[in-house]
Amino acid sequence: MNYNLIYSQVAGHIPYLLGGAILTLELAVISFMVGWAIGLTNASILHFGPRPARLAVQGYVTFFINTPLLVQIFFIFFVLPDAGILLSPYAAVAIGMSLNAGAYLTEIQRAGFQSLRREEIDAATAMGFSVPQIVWYVVLPHIAKALYPPLSNQFIIQVMTTSIAAIFAVEELTGRAYNVNSLTFRSLEVFSIVAVIYLVLTLACSLALALLGRWLFRVKARVF
Amino acid sequence: MWEQLLEDAPRFFGIWNLMFLGQALLNTLLLSYLGAAFGFAIGFSLAIGRHPRLNGIAPIRLLATAYVEVFRRIPFLVKLMCIFFAFQLSGAQASLFTIALVTVVLSAAAFAAEIARAGIEAVPAPQWDAAEAMNFSRWKVLTRVVAPQSWRVVLPPLFGYAVGFIKSTSIASQIGVMELTYAAKILNTRGFSALLCFGTILIVYFLICWPTKRFGEHLEARLGRRPKV
Known about the structure:
- The structure holds two protein chains of two kinds.
- By secondary structure, chain A is mainly α.
- Chain A is about 80% helix and about 0% strand.
- The longest helix of chain A is centred in the N-terminal third of the chain and has 35 residues, at about 15-50.
- Chain A starts with 7 loop residues before the first helix and ends in a 7-residue tail after the last helix.
- In chain B, helix 2 runs antiparallel to helix 3 (about 60-70).
- The longest helix of chain B has about 35 residues, at about 15-50.
């Protein structure tokens, strides 16, 4: 191997790459929050809804979990324009990632809903709570602690998944790595630096989420 | 949109395109199942190498732990690009398929190591103490005490992860490996409608992933029902 790694040419671009990391976090947060809302709605439907709605939700979850996110976004980005819906790359990626996260977060939250006791919901119904009220005031506070570790895990996965946005020319961390690579041609250097940034980013997120969980719910989440 | 679809469909599902997609499907299957199989084998070794009661050499434990933590926290695409350029710059003549396979193996190993660790930790501590008190060697503890009990915990989630790797191989289209996603992109460039190309491979992916996942769930229900040893 006659190749010398030269990091000095790439070092000047590190602030630019870190700017991409902010966009990465932004995409992860947006898709996670939208996916969480989709997941909560779907889990409520699976628990309280009528049979046709339950089947529809199950179909959605099964389909999105068993197909690659990349192809889902390809579909959104290239097929929807034929139907007259033109999306920017950023929007297509954000929508694809949200729908994909929605399916996983449905699965996670459905498991939480199943841990509820019948009496609690009966009591809430007797007090005249509507289904959204039951979910928000009775179900969520009850299962929040149990759900916290898998949810924060999903967020970390979401941070790593955003790298797919680079394929659609969104300039997040990996997208900017492609840019720096075509400027400097120091390919291995660029991508190894980006790998380290991802490592630090996800570790920082894990640590922050573990501390938050300890403060909010006294969850003993482990970072490693 | 729909008229065009009906018009395109017979041309799209012609014999050449089907053979082309079949080849791509074969590559996807080889890449994901071979990669998962090799990766899981390495992952189990890593899990054993990480465990303080199975491996006494601290530096190796540390290395195995570092490997698992690092490779689980880097996106597949970034790993793929690193390995791609590393191969290119080292001057080794490797096919794109090999590069993608190496990436799948290296990531599968890290994830499998975590699952295997959970399996090893499911064996209660008194059994370890008992085996050590009976002067079992580390190898015997592993093969006679730990493995017979932990495989039930380890096996079912592996299928869920295998599905994850089938889906990850779609990212290998990025370096030009001739698998399903890349085939769809090529057909799309040849002028077939995006709906046909990407819709078809979405269904094909679903048909591979869903049975794999169901099999894992079936195993989980079956192995979970039996009384523990």
